[in-house]
User: Fold these one by one.
Assistant:
Number 1:
Amino acid sequence: MKLSVFVIKYLLSISITFMLFLVVQQTAQAQENGLGFIDEQIAEHKGLTGVLVLDKGEEALLARAWLADHAQESIEVQYFIWSSDNIGKLATEALLRAAERGVHVRVIVDDFLIDAPDKSLLALALHPNIQIRIYNPKHSVGTSLLKRISNVITDFRGVNQRMHDKTFIVDGKVAITGGRNMADEYFDYDHKYNFRDRDVLVIGKVVADVKQSFERFWESKLSASVEQRFAGIGIFGQRVTVDNVEIKEIYSDLHKYAHSPENFAPEVRHAISNIPAEFARLAKKTVWADVQFISDIPGKNKNRFALDGGGESSAALAALISSAERRVIIQSPYLVLSKEAEDLFRKTSKRGVKVLISTNSLASTDNLQAFSGYKKQRRKLLKMGLHIYEYKPHPAVQQKLLERYAEIESKQPVFAIHAKSMVIDSQILYIGTYNLDPRSENLNTEVGIIVKNEELARSVEKMIAVDMRPENSWLPTDNPDKHTTMAKRMKVLFWQMMPIKPLL
């Protein structure tokens, strides 16, 4: 049974989360610590924010699971992609159980990629402790075929404006943001394709700003409740309803599925059993510092027709780059510069600032359209003085970053960059959702944190530097495109001829 591409995979975290409940009940020490441990940390560091970089997929998964299991009052979640799979179903059930134990759960998901069964999505939304809102519903939820076509014709910018935010907030005390969506491949659980990604967990002061951003989207006119979307559908659509018996059956099926031993992969059982100890280990790495949370307003900017316009996150990151005196190091899965971005990096390079960028190669990328935009610019970017490193699909560092590499080594999964990070002069660090492309600059809403802390900045800088090593990346001058198939190269050539740059 499938549940929301989005509601369901929040559950990725949350599922493991509540499965974890059985283990944590037997772990007295974990019970004593709970969120009380976090309260103690906040009290000891008044006015500061605790920052923990989650560089490995399994760490990011365990942190979310532990936090969701220990939520006492509220869980607020905001994501762009929420895939459905085995873990997703378990996660959906965990979200339901969290609500059943009295936790108030609110979820905002972008409409673009939802493929959830309508009745299941509606059944979850009708739970008294669960609220689900759909951001900018012009494609999927409650939208008839005729209306979808009309939206594309009459509101092209609108259908292309998406919520790319990724935030996870527990009890208003702890939050996680960064590059990871809710899907197996972002947590190293896919057997064919996994992402080299990066999240950051924050505790304390800045969490209020993260929650304030969530509230802006929650109250925005662009966000509609699931109940509203299913109240009536126009021509070629069908009104969606679910009665009490159906709701009970959906809930019961989820609980049965979660309690069935064969539905737990061995690696998931292992992760669940180790969460209490793992989170304690991760917590010791927390650095307390002054932190700024940056975010866009719903809708990105005031433009309603043009595809440009920038945004608050774009302006904040441009200001950081302009402030650089020696070096800028960036990691982004996509590298497509608008005219404004080209001008910014050209001026930065002319000032003597060294700009290094880690991005995907054609062999590793998951987005051929975006790569086509980069390929059209590649020579120009190199002439501007940018130092570019293209990630290999099977980098040596993959063995170190994937906790479960030995289990999937024989399947040779592709490993691709999805992390969105920047380090300025080894002193200032940005981690968030922002890709180095026109879509993040002008269309999609983005979030992230800026930390002025040399210890954290140098730590992430070293991580990116490792990804740039010869065993992990190719130089553009070495013709890395040759390492993939002719068919893939021809597809990129096709997209290079399309006038799609503002949408990349």
Note: The chain has a mean pLDDT of 86.
Number 2:
Amino acid sequence: MSIKDKISGFLQGVGLSAINAIARLGPYDLQSQSYGDDSRHQLDWYRGDGIDRPVVVFLYGGNWQSGQRRDYRFVADTLIRLNCDVVIPDYRLYPEVRFADILSDARQALAFVKAEVSTPIILMGHSAGAQLGSLLALEPGNADLAAFIGMAGPYDFYPFTEDEHWDLFSPDYEISQPVNFVSATAPAFYLLHGEDDQRVRRGHSKSLMQKQNEVGGVATREVYKDMGHVDIILSFSPFHRRRSQVVSDIHTFISNKRMS
């Protein structure tokens, strides 16, 4: 890693710490729970005031190799203010495990939440978390979800362009591609992408939307000008959310799902 990369990473970490420090002041109760036996099988459950609030299960990204739930407290803080409760699970990461295990962890976390609540559940993810969430939302057993919201997700990326992905997704490469599992019975898909995303290009969300609609599913898409891969998740920060079109659109979408 270059000195420039180290400095950039340090500054991003400081910024994230500041964002989450402000989020600690949010109007919610936080409880950490285990959903399985591994040390990574932990989730944070954020509960706001009121009853019958929908629950958003948020899956973070990190190229299936990094991430921890505490780094996304700012996402929960914003969603709490949109009248949702929020669950953010950790999951095992590559190279300790392969993709099938990562997907299994996400599936197990979602099942844990479904067993605990009777209110609508919305699955949401960013980047690799959006890929995981879309795969879960397309599984027949999850047709009862209220919706799936995917931000900057890779949904159609085979053959792989990163060498390590051949190992990460082995041996069953096809299970990594949400476009292989489109379904008319899946919950509504709301796919968001930055126009300037250079990490996961916006053609991924276009491909999944088109294929979902072709089989009779419901999928809509928003593309945001002058927004990159990280910008879309930083829209949830307390510094951006009041003016964020992303947050506004998600609020409208969730409100419409509650009324339907």
Note: The chain is about 35% helix and 20% strand.
Number 3:
Amino acid sequence: MAAVCFMITLVLYIVATVSFLSYSLRRSEALSQVSLGLTAVGFASHTFVLGARMFAASSSASPSFSDALSFFAWMIILVLLIVELRHRIHVLGSFMVPLALVSLVSAAALPDTEPTLQPVFKTLWFHVTLSMLGAVGFTVAFVAGVMYLIQDRFLKSKQFNVLYSKLPALDFLDHLNQQSIVVGFPLLTLGIVTGAISAQFARGSYVSWNPEQIWALVTWLFYFIVLLGRLTIGWRAKRAAYLTVIGFACVILTLVGVVLKGHSALS
């Protein structure tokens, strides 16, 4: 049943992605409601899948890398729905649903024989939840940064097209960018700390300096500098947007490093 719901979720996210992208290029507001409805139904199905996997992980096998990626996609959609309910920014789905889809497709692409998470990661719904929540915060900051850069370019080139009319104001996007980092950074910090403590109990060492841990620390340091610059020096607007786009690459490299390590364990 969970496998069927997973496929249903995947199909719904694919259709929602196409619908949202069509909405961003057309003036039909009805498409936004259709897209949001598809996403909400997909989210409900996705929630069932994660609930079933959590039960299976607690009763038998340890959680897998695909579970973590699926959880990441689920949280992206959750944040999208929350922001949509509060601010009614329909075009946000055109950026966030495709990211969730990529994460879910990556989870589906992992082989059935993939290894479970190492002992340091067995507290998935605590350590990885905190880390993934931090990553989602940075994902929202990335999306806000990309939207800011697009809107800024439209304004400077005076291209007042359909997408321009649907993008939020620059001040709002800059605020969303900053608040996402403010929320995401302490969550990532807690995720790294709990992971280090778990590693100490499992391996007798807080840090083993493997690639994914190094990238996680690089990501933490990068966003620490960005957050410090925003709150003290006053980095804003375009500079902050570019930095969060660069920082998101560190987030992706960390996730890829975890997955690649899992594949190397199979050989």
Note: Residues 117-267 form one domain.
Number 4:
Amino acid sequence: MVDGSDLETPELKKSMSMTATPTTRVLATIAVGASLVMLLLALIVSPADVVQGDAVRMLYIHVPSIWVAYGSFGLTACTSGLFILRYKRRADRGRHYDRLAGAAAEVGVVFTGLTLFSGMLWGKVTWGSYWQWDARLTTTVLLFVTYLGYLALRRLPADPGVRAKRAAIMALVSFVNVPIVHFSVDWWRTLHQKASLSVGRRPEITGDMYWTLMYSALTFTFVATWLMIHRYRVIRLEEMRDEELLLQQLRERRSENSL
């Protein structure tokens, strides 16, 4: 019986001990510092809302979370399309796009979960209940579940190329729900408020609230980028481990056949 832990070369063991580099450490420092400043702006500098009071401060978590999720799923769709186009020509580039798609999807799922959680807390204050089967909420849950299914598909045992192609196709199909989630408040009657910021529409918020929201979105983007880089590297290390396991199994099979 071959144990994957026994197959790790010294180089692989060393690389698996950490996924950080000087660049990602700098990015992490920026992300932590920016997060602290964001908390200061959100809790102290930004004023309470006339109607919602201090509950409006959930805005600085809820809205940037879904923006990051949209961007992550968009990146998953783009890199999945590139995988389909490039894999037959250059397998190494194709695998790079597949890893990036997987890492982006994982980050998107995390931030979609944060969107739902913060939205439930906000809804309890403004609507009196944690959940309503509202068009925006329902489509967001569907988006969350769909990408959980995408991540599950990536874990199914299969030939790596075949599995990656199936996942790429599912990623492209799943992305159709992103614009549905975003425009659901415009297409259907819903309890959820209209978008605070939208192209071609006057912003619903101004002043310190506006700039705090913009800064929060930038901070969440830094955090998401940092997470995505690490997840990409972890996926690559998992592939290295699996390749080493396969090679060892082939060597043992050849040794058995030669006896």
Note: The chain has a mean pLDDT of 83.
